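Exam revision sheet. Question 4 asks you to relate a sequence to its structure. Input first:
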Amino acid sequence: VPHSMESVVEVLESYRGRDKVIRTCCYGSQLVGGVLSRRAEAGSFSLGKSLLRFSAQLSQCRTVLRLFDDLSMLAYSCSYGLGTREEDAGVRWISVLTNVADQLYYPCEHIAWAADAELIKVKSEEWWLFTTVLWGTSLLLGILRSFRILLLMRKQLRRSRTDSIINGRFQLHKQMREEFLSIFSKTADLCNAIHWMPPGFLWAGQFPRWLVGLMGTISSVIGLMQMSSGNGD
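Answer key, structure tokens:
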């Protein structure tokens, strides 16, 4: 138990870890709240609405915290550059485009947030749309990148069939599993991104709240799993 508590505290003390926990609680609350608010019982309905309000507050909290993410994203984009260290040109240019979409995402979201907070006099709807489009673009590019990496890994596995290096093949299988999880996670988020697009675009506006919560919870739990795996636990 102490070790588990230490692991939780370690996650919560890091900014990325805390964000993932808040995200999981946010979407988990929306999932449960969405289900309960559909029930006819007064108690369940009231609890469901409270959970939905709690989810909205956590979402707002994450938006405010992201006001300070521009510099860290810029530092990452600059360190990656044009991806000259990547062996595959496809992975390189997909990653560069993803970094551009991610970098543009933050100022658009800041403007939308400031407009909602009545700090500036612009229409927030257009900026929230730009934000959603950039997020969806980043997710789609991330899915394409993972598929490309999986294709390269499959070729590498075929070439290594005659090799006796078991550890190398094990690492490849582990990396492939991570890419599959990444695709699953980003696809769940992309479903929500499309839901938040203007009505008439695919299934925009068609998801009930519980389904939005379910997609987000799936993505968030996978993110926590990947972070835990990255820490060696």
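Marking note for examiners. The chain has a mean pLDDT of 91.
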